[in-house]
Structures are given as structure tokens and as C-alpha cells.
């Protein structure tokens, strides 16, 4: 069986590619990073190392790579013959992989079913990828193509920090992982993916994950950076950062347990497990990475603004989320294009207007005023 995975990066090699290989697929990675692709074609395998006391490692073999910048047609043919297509390139990159996927789906034998699964930290990733693919198909071709190609949404959870190894393919990952895929969007036979969970309705799973794992992570990053820390470890040793982490998770727990009628005890166990994961001494994770792409993370449907606005509308004052949003406005990393854009908006129009542009939180609203007060209070 053949799998095509877009994004030979941290999650691509450290999580999705490994699951695909363990499930019996020959994995072809598609990427624009020539170093990764050339090495994949040279070695045809790589090591995954577990970041815990065991330092257990395993080999992912039978892999290869296609540089979609140099050989777009090869990527198109690989899609035409694939039994499954997955992607972990970053939400902002989905529009750039869509044309190749559209051409590949058009090239498939009439009616041969395939599923295309976005594995991004976002709600509705595959829906968005499908909409981007549709832009490159005429209406009647799209109708035909989407009869046999499914775009089930998924939620992926495994912490894979940015890391350097002698072999650039080696990847160190936490032992924990969760890959939840919705059955609603599947076409043809349900793929058998070792360790993945298939559910009818993904929404509770993706929202629970995004608004717990990622919201917590973002609060550590933005509040930690504000206090001058560089890593999750340093930040987690600071009681004020941990208090804000516990605050945002209490606030999102209120939202999630209410919206999805979750069992409080079970949810608290899930929350505690995640705080333990942040404290993993075998993982060194940079706050710049965890807080990367601040415009995405401040956007209305993402991990900070979405729960804060929902809670505010229900009459709760999510102070920890608001303080974290204020801290996110101070995310100023010159190598991060979204951070540069955010800071430019603040210089041009002031923090309140920048907040509205990034998040949709209306300037002049009581929530905006509270956030901006926190913004001016923090150093
Ligand atoms: N790193 C983590 O701990 C986790 C990341 N994720 C999600 O997975 C996605 C990827 O994240 P990471 O693996 O950390 O990032 P990464 O930067 O390590 O990997 C992204 C890969 O996509 C490649 N890429 C960029 N443009 C491309 C294009 N046009 N065509 C093909 N490949 C292209 C890059 O060269 C890179 O190798 C993001 O949506 C992230 O939110 C989800 C869970 C955990
Ligand atoms: O990958 P994103 O969306 O930029 O978020 C960053 C953090 O969220 C996680 O992906 C957790 O799922 C972390 O591993 C990652 O550092």
C-alpha cells in the first residue's frame, strides 16, 4: 500500500509517517526542503527516538521523498497511485499543496477511492484543504473527483520540538500520541492506521485537544516569553506562569465540559496528563516554536480567542485567557513573519486596533479594554 505525506518535518516524520509505515504503507514524503528529501532518498529510512527514560528508538523504513518544487509532476503521479494522502505542513501552507493534490486526484483511475487527511493544529483542516483543492478544479470535475476522494478532518497530538541531530532525519518525540480521524468524511474502505482512533464526530475531540493542549502550550509560551524565558522547562519552573496555565485550562475546561457535556473528572485527568507532558524533562521545547505564528493563534477560531469570546458571551470573564492574549500581542520574534506583521500593526495603529485585526475582538468592547489594560500593565 502506498501513502503520500506532505511535510517531512517534525510531525510528518515523528508521528504521521511512522504510523503510516507501521500500518503497512510505503511512505513517500513530499516536501520543498531539498536536504530532507535528498536524505530520505539516500537512506530510505530514519530513526524515531522516544523522549523518555527508555530512550527507546525504532526505524521507519521503506520511505522515499519527492521535492515538489523540483518535481511537481512526480508528486502528481504519486497522488494518482496513492492509497492514502496526508499532510502536516502548517495551516498557512495548505493553499500551496492544493494544486498538486488537485492534479493528482484528477489523474486517478476513475472512481478509485482515496482519503486526503490534513494533520494540522486547526479545526476543520481537511475541510479547508478540500476547499483549496476545489479552487483548482472546474465545477463538474470537482463533482466527480469528490465522489471518490474523501477529506476527513483529524486531530493530531504529539509534542515534537525543533531539534538538531547528526542525521537530519532522526526525530525525537514524546511517547504519547493521539490521532483522531472522523469517519464522516471517509470514502471507500476505512484505512487501518495503527493507534489511530476513528470517530463519527470529530468536533469534541479536536476542540478538546486544541483548547487544552494547544491553549495551555500557548499560555506557557506567551507568558513565559514575557518573563524572559526561552524554553517550556524554564517557564514551567515559574509559579506565576503555571498559575496562568492552570487559569486558562480552568477556563477552557468550563467551556468544553459545558459545550460537550464532558465528565468533569475525566476531563481533569486529561488536563493533568497534559500538564505532566509539558513537564517532560526529556523534551526541550523552545517558546518561540510553541508561540510561532501569533496571528494564527490569536485568530477567531483558534486556541485563545475562540474560548475567550465564547466564555465572555456567556457572562464569564476569562481573565487568564485575556492576560495570555495580551502577552501574545507582545510576541516579537524577528524570524517569525506573523510576529513581524503583528508588531507592525501595533506600531502603526496601536495595540487595540492590532488586537481587533488579529482576533476580531472589537476595539472599545469591554473584553478588548481588559486585554489592553493587561497589555499596558505587563512589561
Ligand atoms: N510539532 C508539533 O509538536 C506538532 C505540530 N502539529 C502541526 O503539524 C503541522 C506541521 O508542524 P511541524 O511538523 O511542527 O512543522 P515543521 O516545520 O517541522 O514541518 C513542516 C514541513 O512542511 C514543509 N513544507 C513547507 N511548505 C511546503 C510545501 N509547499 N509543500 C510541501 N511541504 C512543505 C516544510 O519544509 C517542513 O518540512 C502544523 O500544522 C502543526 O500545527 C500538530 C501537533 C504537534
Ligand atoms: O504547531 P502549532 O499550531 O504552531 O502549535 C505549537 C504547539 O502545539 C503542539 O502542536 C501541541 O499539539 C505542540 O507540539 C506545538 O509546539
UniProtKB/TrEMBL annotation:
Entry-linked InterPro entries: 6-PGluconate_DH-like_C_sf, 6PGD_dom2, Mannitol_1_phos_5_DH, Mannitol_DH, Mannitol_DH_C, Mannitol_DH_N, NAD(P)-bd_dom_sf
SUPFAM superfamilies: 6-phosphogluconate dehydrogenase C-terminal domain-like (SSF48179), NAD(P)-binding Rossmann-fold domains (SSF51735)
Domain Mannitol dehydrogenase N-terminal per the UniProt entry, residue ranges: 1-194
Keywords per UniProt: NAD, Oxidoreductase
Pfam family membership, one: Mannitol_dh_C
UniProt xrefs under HAMAP family: Mannitol_dehydrog (MF_00196)
NCBIfam families linked to this entry: PRK02318.1-2 (NF002646), PRK02318.1-3 (NF002647), PRK02318.2-5 (NF002652)
Name by which UniProt lists this protein: Mannitol-1-phosphate 5-dehydrogenase
Originating organism: Jeotgalibacillus alimentarius
Lineage, opening ranks: Bacteria, Bacillati, Bacillota, Bacilli, Bacillales
Amino acid at each position: 500500500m502506498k501513502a503520500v505525506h506532505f511535510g517531512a518535518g517534525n510531525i510528518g516524520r515523528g508521528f504521521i509517517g511512522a504510523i503510516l509505515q507501521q500500518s503497512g504503507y510505503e511512505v513517500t514524503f513530499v516536501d520543498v526542503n531539498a536536504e530532507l528529501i535528498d536524505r530520505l532518498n539516500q537512506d530510505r529510512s530514519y530513526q524515531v527516538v522516544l523522549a523518555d527514560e527508555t530512550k527507546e528508538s525504532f526505524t521507519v523504513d521503506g520511505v522515499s521523498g519527492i521535492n515538489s518544487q523540483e518535481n511537481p509532476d512526480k508528486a502528481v503521479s504519486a497522488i494518482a497511485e496513492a492509497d492514502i494522502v496526508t499532510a502536516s505542513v502548517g495551516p498557512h501552507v495548505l493553499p500551496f499543496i492544493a494544486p498538486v493534490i488537485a492534479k493528482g486526484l484528477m489523474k486517478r483511475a476513475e472512481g478509485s477511492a482515496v482519503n486526503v487527511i490534513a494533520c494540522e493544529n486547526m479545526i476543520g483542516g481537511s475541510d479547508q484543504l478540500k476547499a483549496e483543492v476545489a479552487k483548482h478544479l472546474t465545477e463538474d470535475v470537482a463533482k466527480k473527483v469528490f465522489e471518490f476522494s474523501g477529506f476527513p478532518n483529524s486531530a493530531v497530538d504529539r509534542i515534537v520540538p525543533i531539534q538538531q541531530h547528526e542525521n537530519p532525519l532522526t526525530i525525537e518525540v514524546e511517547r504519547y500520541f493521539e490521532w483522531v480521524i472522523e469517519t464522516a468524511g471517509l470514502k471507500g474502505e476505512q484505512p487501518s492506521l495503527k493507534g489511530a482512533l476513528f470517530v463519527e464526530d470529530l468536533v469534541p475531540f479536536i476542540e478538546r485537544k486544541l483548547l487544552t493542549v494547544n491553549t495551555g502550550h500557548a499560555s506557557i509560551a506567551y507568558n513565559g516569553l514575557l518573563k524572559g524565558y526561552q524554553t517550556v522547562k524554564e517557564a514551567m519552573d515559574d509559579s506565576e506562569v503555571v498559575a496562568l496555565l492552570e487559569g486558562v485550562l480552568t477556563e477552557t475546561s468550563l467551556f468544553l465540559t459545558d459545550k460537550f457535556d464532558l465528565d468533569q473528572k475525566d476531563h481533569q485527568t486529561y488536563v493533568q496528563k497534559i500538564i505532566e507532558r509539558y513537564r517532560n524533562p526529556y523534551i526541550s521545547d523552545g517558546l518561540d516554536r510553541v508561540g510561532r505564528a501569533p496571528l494564527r493563534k490569536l485568530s477567531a477560531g483558534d486556541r485563545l480567542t475562540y474560548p475567550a469570546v465564547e466564555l465572555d458571551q456567556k457572562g464569564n470573564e476569562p481573565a487568564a485567557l485575556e492576560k495570555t492574549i495580551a502577552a501574545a500581542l507582545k510576541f516579537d520574534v524577528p524570524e517569525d513573519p506573523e510576529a513581524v506583521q503583528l508588531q507592525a500593526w501595533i506600531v502603526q495603529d496601536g495595540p487595540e486596533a492590532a488586537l481587533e485585526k488579529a482576533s476580531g475582538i472589537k476595539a472599545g468592547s469591554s473584553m478588548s479594554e481588559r486585554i489592553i489594560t493587561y497589555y499596558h500593565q505587563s512589561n
